[in-house]
Amino acid sequence: MPQLPPAAPRTMASRIRSIFSGSVGNLVEWYDWYVYSAFALYFAPAFFPKGNLTAQLLNSAAIFAVGFLMRPLGGWLMGVYADRAGRKAALLASVLLMCGGSLLIALTPSYSQIGVAAPVLLVVARLLQGLSVGGEYGTSATYLSEMADQRNRGFFSSFQYVTLIAGQLLALLVQLGLQQWLTTAEMYAWGWRVPFALGAIAALVALYLRRSMEETDAFTRQTAPATGQPQRPSQLRVLLQHPREILTVVGLTLGGTVVFYTFTTYVQKFLVNTTGFTKGQATLVSFGALGVAMLLQPLLGAISDRVGRRPVLLFFGVGATLLTVPLLTALGRANGPGAAFGLLLVALVIVSGYTSINAVVKAELFPTEIRALGVGLPYALTVAIFGGSAEYVALLAKDHGVENWFYWYVTGCAAFSLVVYLRMPDTRATSRMREE
């Protein structure tokens, strides 16, 4: 089998330009994804029959979870595509899908206008977005990890969650702006459509920027099949030859995704529905805490380049296992935005032990030819089952008067991942990227 010619040495400036191009697209994709959760309080009455707020939020949370069900399919299809056609091609496809989903939500008439077709179209839009995000995570994690140099891989790959959190912050910033400029009635009537329209436009801009991205050296150095050679085996079949790595991805993701979605997407509803804050107060608290957490990602990523990945993961696992119940209990009783901000910030500092390095840890587990698929598919399956349902489980527990059961559920998920962290090797020392 002939070898592709070796790529010219990549300069640090070239790496940074490519990482920036990839990260901007990642930011837009996650903005589009999180706008749904940020504005659910406003659009839920438009898409569902009249009822109490918790019932309408349950309906919107169920569709939020449905979007997650497409993420494994996206992780599979985009992972295969990224490992066959290239990381760049898959990242272009994922942002195009996200554009379509956001535009559909922005334009869908309300339940009072078209009846049951409204929630049906909302489901279709979330399925498109779920397919997009499912492919985005694995491909983006692979791209950033491969584009980084070995000494700074944790630092550069942490920008996946910098831009992911930045997407959430942008969604909240748009929400804060609209809350200031529009009346509550206008927000419920049509204001919630604005962020989805902005997301569709931004996705087109991201599509343009991603066209200038360079392909990673790891992908371009792969051997090319010679003419007449038998077809390569199914990538899914090759992936299944790495059961330990697959289970490691599932185990290290399970606790991280549940804790992450609890303290980022669900917490805004928690502060309104449980603590009793106004929507504006809940948005400000979430925005401030997430802003600090975003800045922590490169710091912890850089620390992992010095001390290893495992100690940083253990910081998250121990902290989340011991402090989730006390933090959620205190947050539910917070007597003001300042106290809530402090508690949420502690929670997000702990979560950052997972978010800052989970992408590079997963990428370091797999060889180049199945890396995007290996990172994306088991991650997406785990997030679909546990992360996507976290908000629904929380609201269901509250609806049945046993909200504190959810606190223990989150703790149990974190403890499960802690066991995985204790047993897994440090991927900085065992990285498959060392072979490239």
TrEMBL record:
Residues in the signal sequence: none
Coarse class of the protein's main subcellular location: membrane
Membrane topology: Multi-pass membrane protein
Key word DNA damage present: no
Residue ranges of domain Major facilitator superfamily (MFS) profile in the record: 18-428
SUPFAM superfamilies: MFS general substrate transporter
Cited Pfam families: Sugar_tr
Record-linked InterPro entries: H+-coupled_symporters (IPR051084), MFS_dom (IPR020846), MFS_sugar_transport-like (IPR005828), MFS_trans_sf (IPR036259), Sugar_transporter_CS (IPR005829)
Protein's UniProt name: MFS transporter
Spans through the membrane: 30-48, 60-82, 89-108, 114-134, 155-178, 190-209, 246-263, 283-300, 312-332, 338-361, 373-394, 406-424
Assigned keywords, A-Z: Cell membrane, Membrane, Symport, Transmembrane, Transmembrane helix, Transport
Statement: the UniProt record of this protein carries the keyword Cell membrane: yes
Localization, UniProt: Cell membrane
